[in-house]
Specification:
With 80 residues, the chain is mainly α. The protein folds into two domains: 46 residues, no CATH class; 34 residues. The two termini are 37 Å apart.
């Protein structure tokens, strides 16, 4: 995500010929987009994105369980 934002900022600066970016090569300006594509490919290949999605889902599930336990007056489960 950071590479994508950086690429958009550099692209806008190059297009508007703002600051020192106006004199940079297009290769340098467009490099963050290539890095973003590489990051996304690696994240999908390694299972990183799936792992993060599972962690978010597990946290939501545990929060829901804790909320229902507190509503019943039991209190959240303590880690061992």
């Amino acid at each position: 995500m950071y590479f994508l934002i950086l690429g958009l900022v550099l692209l806008a600066m190059k297009y508007l010929e703002f600051g020192p970016v106006a004199n940079w090569s297009w290769t340098v300006v467009l490099a963050p987009f290539a890095l973003a594509a590489l990051w996304w490919a690696w994240a999908d290949w390694s299972g990183y994105s799936k792992k993060k999605a599972m962690e978010r889902m597990d946290k939501r599930k545990q929060d829901r369980i804790d909320k229902q336990r507190s509503a019943l007056g039991i209190g959240p489960k303590k880690p061992r």
